[in-house]
Design goal:
Layout lengths: L5 H8 L6 E15 L17 E3 L5 E3 L2 E8 L4 E3 L8 E7 L10 E9 L13 E13 L8 E6 L4 E4 L5 E2 L2 E2 L13 E2 L10 E9 L10 E5 L6 E3 L2 E9 L9 E7 L3 E2 L1 E7 L3 E11 L7 E9 L5 E7 L5 E4 L16 E9 L9 E14 L4 E7 L13 E6 L10 H8 L5 E8 L5 H4 L1 E7 L8
Parallel strand pairs: 8-13
Antiparallel strand pairs: 1-26, 1-29, 2-3, 3-26, 4-20, 5-15, 6-14, 6-17, 7-11, 7-12, 7-15, 7-20, 8-9, 8-10, 8-14, 9-18, 15-19, 16-17, 17-18, 21-25, 22-26, 23-24, 23-25, 27-28, 29-30
């Protein structure tokens, strides 16, 4: 979905708004899209693409390089409360700096020891487990007047095989996209004890049978009992316990600072703007098109980043295109079977957020505007607030028969002329005095699941 253009917003806010919902029934005749991981290998030069990484979920993003955000790299002992019994030690980071709201973690590297008594024969840890939480609530008056913290896990537990000596263990978070500033804690007392987005980091050790390991430790520096601040962000440690009788899941008693500084490095990703080109392997419709040729340019574009899409015109010059534009909208571009195209992924000003190219290509389509005979009702969308993944949106489209009841109305004729799998509904918010591809708001595309008459 594109952002709401100021020109369209102005039309919507007028006392006599001229903008409204437009409904299109689109029939796809031929298509050539790149949208799964293997598709990106067709780029000029093949894989690896310079400064880019194909994602397991099918997208293409800028390659992520590690950049240390905050760290402490000294230790004179070990925190040993690394199991699920109370109390247990955690590191925390208050994100009080000026990092963008959608910053993502790239790696967490604690210094861990598999046998703190110095006897390797007593090692029973087989796997290290990382869990990152967001602080979502602080209550200074919990059960028994304890200060309580409510923590929300931000991912499934991440495991790393335990070695046979003490050292830094790297938990790679690439692709998980943990956003530590996505949650601002609620202070139940109305105060500002925890006023910044805060991440808690828990390390556990487990044996090969899945039970808690013993004789393990996380490096700590007891020579310094205060926190460490880097670029406004604060690194410290806390000792938490599970309060007896508290029925609220994810709530812990705050036993106060652990009086040491944890040995840990927290890294975020940095990105470099790059372009992917499909010139040697152009997009190919398979035959000369007779209907409209539409460009498909879909991406996740976080605030501060941008995408630029281009097609090579008849003069062998790359010109900008937008999602949904057709060949007829572009000067000096003929309707042909193949098109050379490229996309530029531009990171934000601080180079720590990447857009993700989701779909790129061309398709031959017949676009039927059915706004005057159809209206959308009951559109629904949903997403998982923890993983930030969306469900498939749904909408009901009610269409009238705009002629004699002889099954020759517009919608029935379109349905009869095409396989239902080649059709989809596209919804816009637009206006006749606004540019469709620059200023209209594309709401969503919907595949047709079923059709039925109304009584």
């Amino acid at each position: 979905m594109r952002h709401l253009a100021p020109a369209l917003e102005e039309l919507l806010r007028r006392a006599d708004p001229t903008a409204h919902i437009y409904t299109e029934l689109v029939a796809v005749d031929r298509t050539h899209l790149r949208r799964i991981k293997d598709d990106w290998a067709d780029a000029d030069g093949g894989l690896p693409i310079s400064n880019m990484t194909p994602r397991d979920d099918g997208g293409l993003q800028l390659a992520e390089a590690q950049s240390t955000k905050i760290f402490h790299a000294a230790q004179d002992g070990f925190a040993t409360n690394l199991d699920n019994t109370t109390p247990f030690d955690m590191a925390y980071i208050e994100w009080a700096g000026s990092d963008p709201a959608n910053i993502t973690l790239n790696a967490i590297k604690p210094y861990l020891h598999p046998f703190v008594d110095g006897n390797s024969g007593n090692q029973d840890v087989a796997t290290w487990v990382l869990q990152v939480y967001a602080l979502i609530k602080y209550d200074p008056n919990g059960l028994g007047s304890e200060e309580e913290l409510t923590l929300l896990p931000l991912h499934a537990p991440i495991e790393q095989e335990a070695g046979t000596s003490a050292g830094v263990v790297t938990f790679d978070l690439t692709g998980i996209r943990i956003k530590p500033k996505a949650h601002i804690p609620f202070n139940a007392d109305g105060g500002f004890t925890w006023k910044y987005p805060t991440t808690f980091i828990q390390i556990r050790g487990i044996q090969s049978d899945g039970t808690d390991a013993t004789n393990i430790g996380w490096g700590k520096d007891s020579a310094v009992s205060d926190t460490k601040t880097t670029s406004g962000n604060i690194l410290g440690s806390r000792q938490l316990s599970k309060p007896v009788g508290n029925e609220e899941q994810g709530t812990y008693a705050d036993e106060a600072a652990a009086n040491n500084r944890p040995y840990v490095t927290v890294s975020t990703g940095t990105f470099t703007t790059a372009t992917v080109t499909f010139g040697n392997n152009p997009f190919d419709l398979g035959a000369a098109p007779s209907n409209a040729v539409e460009f498909v340019c879909r991406a996740d574009v976080p605030v501060g980043t941008s995408m630029t899409y281009q097609v090579e015109n008849d003069s062998a010059v790359y010109v900008n295109i937008l999602d949904g534009q057709t060949v007829a909208d572009i000067a000096d571009l003929a309707k042909v079977q193949t098109y050379k195209m490229r996309a530029t992924l531009t990171t934000n000003a601080t180079s720590d957020v990447t857009p993700i190219l989701r779909e790129f290509g061309v398709r031959e389509v017949t676009i039927n505007d059915i706004t005057d005979v159809a209206s959308p009702r009951g559109a629904t969308w949903g997403f998982n607030p923890v993983t930030l993944t969306a469900e498939i949106g749904q909408v009901n489209i009610v269409a009238i028969r705009d002629g004699i009841l002889d099954f020759e109305d517009r919608v029935t004729e379109i349905l009869a002329a095409h396989d239902i799998g080649s059709l989809f509904i596209r919804l816009w918010i637009g206006a006749t005095n606004a540019s469709k591809y620059d200023e209209w708001l594309h709401i969503d595309d919907y595949f047709i699941d079923d059709t039925e008459g109304l009584t």
